[in-house]
Structure formats: structure tokens, C-alpha cells
Design goal:
Blueprint (H helix, E strand, L loop, with lengths): L3 E5 L8 H11 L4 E5 H4 L7 H10 L2 E7 L7 H10 L17 E7 L17 H4 L1 H9 L3 E8 L9 H15 L1 H9 L4
Parallel strand pairs: 1-2, 1-3, 3-4, 4-5
Amino acid sequence: MARVLMLFAHPAYQRSRINRHLIRVAADIEGVTVNDLYECYPDLLIDVRREQQLLSEHDVIAFHHPLSWYSSSAILKEWRDLVLTHGWAYGGEGRALEGKVAIQCVATEGGAQVYREGGFNRFTIRQFIAPFDQTCQVCKMTWLGALVVRGTPEIGDGGGTVQIAVGFSKHLGMDEWIRLLRKRRLV
């Protein structure tokens, strides 16, 4: 079974009904470690060695964050800047993450119609999260794309949330992706 490290970065977790639910789901999945960056580092002083150790101990890295001003939360950018160092994560000697798998879980307030060419935000979600794909490329990881939860304010506490949680748990369980990676001999 793949060990999944979820790097959760939501600056207003207590106000996010859908993310609270998704984190509870993730915490109950065997093999998933939820690393709440804002909870661990309220002062934004990231323990680089601890974070690198966590990365070393897991097979799959899941970046989970809201789309905040067309990017990730501030702490996740700070985390990438400090933790993914030259000579460790990338560069001639940097091979610590080589062969690991990365996925992304992104929540947006707007629906699909606002994240498209000609829409209110002018660009697709894929375009906004391209830096994660490129980061994984530089770190020699396999980036498998993103699960995007759209229109979060409109999602009720009932069936919609349950359906998202089921899809999320399958996404994190990675059954399909693990089969694909085994077929490609990456795990």
C-alpha cells in the first residue's frame, strides 16, 4: 500500500466546511498522513528537516489547498521554497524525491464556468496549478494531476458533500493510479 503524505494548507480551515470534511475523510484512510501546515507552523517557521523526513517516508505527496488569489496558500509557497532545496530535492545531487508520485487537491469557490478562457478568471485551473506540475518535473516526481472541488459555497452538507468525500477518498486511496504506475513499473 502506498503511503500518502497530505500537505494541507488552508489559512481559514475553521471556516471551510468542505475542507474540514475532506480532511476528516483523509485522516481515516489507512496509509494517509495529514500534515496541516498552518497548524504545525502558526508562526510560519517551517522545520525543514522534519518536512524533508516526512517526504522521505512517503510514496505519494498530495498538495491540498484552496485556490487563493490564483495560487496556493502562502504557507505552501513558503514550504516549497524552504523544503525543496537544491542538492536535496533537485539539481545534480538532488534525488530525494525521484520516483515519488504527486497529486493535487484544490478547492475553488467558483464553478467551471469561471475557470476557462473567456470566463471571469480568464484561465483554466490547469493553467493556475501548472507551477506544481513543473515543480514535480524538476524534482523528478511523477505528477498525476489534480482533483478539483469546484463551487464550494454551493455544496451543501448533504449528498453533494458525501459524493465529493467518496471521490476524494478514492483519489487518495489511489487504486487506479497505483495500478497505472505498477503497469508503468514506477512503483
